Amino acid sequence: MLFFLVEDDEEICEILQFYLMENADYQVTITHSAEQAMSLIHLRRFDLALLDIQLPGIDGIDFCRELRKISNCPVIFLSCINDDETIIRALSMGGDDYLVKPFRAPILMARIEAN
Q: Could you report the per-residue pLDDT of 77-106, keeping only the tens digit for each?
């Protein structure tokens, strides 16, 4: 499976990429902004998107809304924001799941498999 991860925290990117590639042999493409991700999704077809909400420039929720115009790939939000309003907004803009940071890697894997 080919994923893309949009996360501005490089340490989180490294940890997630290592875990996903080591434990499930997933291919992970990383970008650090929604603008970079937008360029990528026009070049390749991805099987799943992992999106942070708090990104520089365009936030993850607005990016998801744009992504939905051209792709049906499942979207899992990964965010430290844990309020009902944000979670509802993220899911109503096209997100398929929402996981609050910090989270345990096996929980992420289960949610990926469910999507």
A: 999 999 999 999 999 999 999 999 999 989
